[in-house]
Amino acid sequence: MSSDVDLKDFHGETPYNVMFGPDICRPGTKKVHVIFxxxxxxxxxxxxxxxxxxxxxxxxxxxxxxNNTYEVQIDGEKVESGDLEFDWDLLPAKKIKDPDAKKPExxxxxxxxxxxxxxxxEDGEIPKQIADPKAKKPKxxxxxxxxxxxxxxxxxxxxxxxxxxxxxxxxxxxxxxIHPExxxxxxTPDDELYLYSNWGAIGLDIWQVKSGTIxxxxxxxxxxxxxxxxxxxxxxxxKEAEKEKKEAADExxxxxxEEEDKKRKEEEEAKKDDDEDHDKKDKxxxxxxxxxxxx
Length: 295
Description:
This protein has helices at 84-87, 224-294, and strands at residues 18-25, 29-38, 41-44, 60-64, 69-74, 77-83, 95-97, 112-114, 129-131, 153-155, 167-169, 181-183. The chain is α+β, with helices and mostly antiparallel strands and 295 residues long. It has three domains: 18-93 and 193-215, Jelly Rolls (Sandwich); 102-178, Calreticulin/calnexin, P domain (Calnexin lumenal domain, non-globular proline-rich hairpin domain); 218-285. The strands form five sheets. The protein has a three-stranded antiparallel beta sheet with strand order 1-2-3, with no helix packed on it. The radius of gyration is 40 Å and the shape is flat. It starts with 17 loop residues before the first strand and ends with a helix.
């Protein structure tokens, strides 16, 4: 943000130069925001940059170059790059459709047409259904009481589908008409899209439902080499130590689950054996009572 921002009244609508960082919201949103403010309007990148969504710490880097190009890195590896003018709608389009150009009325864009020489059969279209030739009027049919008898309809075995004329190349085909373009009078190039003359503050706008996220080691610099050296000093040792701790914690959790599963299976087996012993005892008692009854 610029130095004239009122930090005592910082909120989600506070003006900024650049918004950059990961956005993880619901299962469908896991992306890196790169938003530039230009002439009082915020512009979102037109590309989709996927962010990391695991439990480890990650380093996000945005590099703006004096030739109006950019690069986004995650953990020191390039994940996206390009041109500021092409990947954001910061400037009006260079070309626009000529408002005075119109497609000629006789312009034919139909590549294929129905063959005018392909006539239908003289006897007309073959019907899809016909009267059942095997049907007979019931003997007791009274046309005055039961209305005029008509045979039921059946599918016509001669019907081969709706007849359509053959398609041929259109001799008048001129191709797809392309609207001519002209230079946009509202377009003015800007060689300093990358440049913000006033930097004075950094703000974190966070909305989350799960605690535990930490943001630290934020650096704004005009030297890529200095930023890389800072990352090597702060992020690299943390990443290696964190990975080691995470693997140890995962292994401990795995052993704990195995022990719990083993204990649960032993308890289930013990309960099963108790149930079988109880069933066997009940059966022996029933057989003993039957023997007494016979005596």
